[in-house]
């Protein structure tokens, strides 16, 4: 991955941190996007030290804020003129409904609208750097979910895991629609399920204090195993030119039936563009 520039969100913890370490070990230039400078710096120092790769950088942005995502992209463009891999990894499952500074439900904003906006704002750099890849960390939790356009902000009913499943279905629908829009550009878009991985997110979803303290035994696999499919999709020559697929354990598998509904994907794209103030790609 020498000479390749990668950006990854949620890079300081769990699957994102292990993915960053893997990319750093392979010699990539990695831009870590983290919401806390302190947590980001701690991860960056360890990743540089373990990999011996100095080309690891930190950009701080709270992905719940669209203004912060726009500044993040400006900051990135000041330092870098190419981007070969964008990994939309950051995700949350807040136990209570919260609103962002823009007045949107936070889980939907961070898990779906943030990757949507970030990718759209960077798509010209990705195209100019092609071949390039967009990798979005979805989840098998998308199965069974639907998109409720009458309550996208979960104002009528907020059940954390139900909202999570919807945002993960949105990740899959977004990836397939993006792949269709990017046909012929040499920029690919794929998404994945990382497995059940012992991270802060999982512990929080289960109401446990932290992944390691959760029980005497770790629940789920370790983050290194959880990062394998992200690293595979970001780096492997085997997936060069492959786009619009959902991967589990480094293999393309069928996602839920509804995730292939092109009119649903188109409608979600349009609504997401409205909610983020973007004109359509
Ligand atoms: N763990 C699993 O079993 C599992 C299964 C399927 C899919 N996934 C997906 O895997 C991805 C990574 O999650 P994980 O399990 O590795 O969880 P994690 O350890 O909690 O990591 C989540 C990362 O996202 C960052 N983040 C959260 N909110 C943010 C915001 N507003 N702005 C910027 N960064 C933010 C976190 O930053 P802080 O450290 O500052 O909180 C952290 O770095 C998620 O998309 C999740 O849906 C996980």
Report the top-level CATH class.
Alpha Beta
* CATH superfamily label: NAD(P)-binding Rossmann-like Domain
CATH topology: Rossmann fold
Q: What number of domains?
A: 1
Bound molecules: NADP nicotinamide-adenine-dinucleotide phosphate
Summed over residues and divided by their number, the pLDDT gives a mean of: 95
Oligomeric category? single chain
Helix content: 40-55%
The strand line-up of the biggest sheet is: 3-2-1-4-5-6-7-8
How much of the sequence is in beta strands?
5-15%
Shape: globular
Q: Low-confidence parts, pLDDT < 50 over ≥5 residues?
A: none
Quickly list its features:
281 residues, alpha/beta, Rossmann fold, 8-stranded mixed β-sheet, 14% strand, binds NADP nicotinamide-adenine-dinucleotide phosphate
Notes on the structure:
The chain is an alpha/beta fold and 281 residues long. The chain has one domain (5-196, 227-276): NAD(P)-binding Rossmann-like Domain (Rossmann fold). The protein is 42% helix and 14% strand. The protein has 9 helices and 8 strands. It has helices at 14-25, 37-51, 66-79, 106-128, 160-181, 200-205, 223-226, 228-235, 262-276; strands at 5-9, 29-34, 56-60, 85-88, 132-137, 187-193, 245-248, 251-253. Strands 3-2-1-4-5-6-7-8 form an 8-stranded mixed β-sheet, with helices on both faces. Helix 1 runs parallel beside helix 2, helix 4 runs parallel beside helix 5 and helix 5 (160-181) packs across helix 9. The longest helix is centred in the middle third of the chain and has 23 residues, at 106-128. It is globular, with a radius of gyration of 17 Å. The model has no long low-confidence stretch (mean pLDDT 95). The structure holds NADP nicotinamide-adenine-dinucleotide phosphate. NADP nicotinamide-adenine-dinucleotide phosphate (NAP) is lined by residues 9-10, 12-16, 35-36, 39, 62-64, 89-92, 110, 137, 139, 193-194, 196-197, 199-202, 220.
């Amino acid at each position: 991955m020498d000479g390749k520039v990668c950006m990854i969100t949620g890079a300081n913890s769990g699957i994102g941190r292990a993915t960053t370490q893997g990319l750093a070990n392979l010699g990539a230039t990695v831009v870590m996007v983290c919401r806390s400078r302190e947590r980001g710096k701690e991860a960056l120092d360890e990743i540089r030290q373990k990999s011996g790769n100095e080309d690891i950088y930190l950009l701080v942005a709270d992905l719940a804020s669209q203004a912060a995502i726009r500044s993040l992209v400006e900051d990135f463009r000041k330092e870098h003129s190419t981007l070969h891999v964008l990994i939309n990894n950051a995700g949350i499952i807040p136990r209570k409904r919260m609103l962002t500074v823009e007045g949107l439900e936070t889980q939907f904003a961070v898990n779906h609208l943030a990757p949507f906006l970030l990718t759209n704002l960077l798509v010209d750099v990705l195209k100019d750097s092609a071949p390039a890849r967009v990798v979005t960390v979805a989840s098998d939790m998308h199965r069974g979910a639907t998109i409720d356009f009458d309550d996208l902000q979960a104002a009528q009913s907020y059940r954390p895991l139900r909202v999570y499943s919807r945002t993960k279905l949105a990740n899959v629908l977004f990836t397939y629609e993006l792949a269709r829009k990017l046909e012929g550009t040499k920029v690919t878009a794929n998404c994945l399920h990382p497995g059940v991985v012992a991270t802060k997110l999982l512990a929080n979803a289960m109401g446990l204090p932290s992944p390691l303290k959760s029980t005497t035994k770790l629940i789920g696999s370790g983050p290194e195993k959880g990062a394998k499919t992200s690293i595979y999709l970001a780096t492997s020559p085997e997936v060069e030119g492959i786009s619009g697929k959902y991967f589990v354990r480094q293999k393309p598998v069928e996602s839920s039936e509804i995730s292939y509904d092109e009119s649903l994907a188109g409608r979600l794209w349009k609504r997401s563009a409205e909610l983020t103030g973007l004109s359509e790609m």
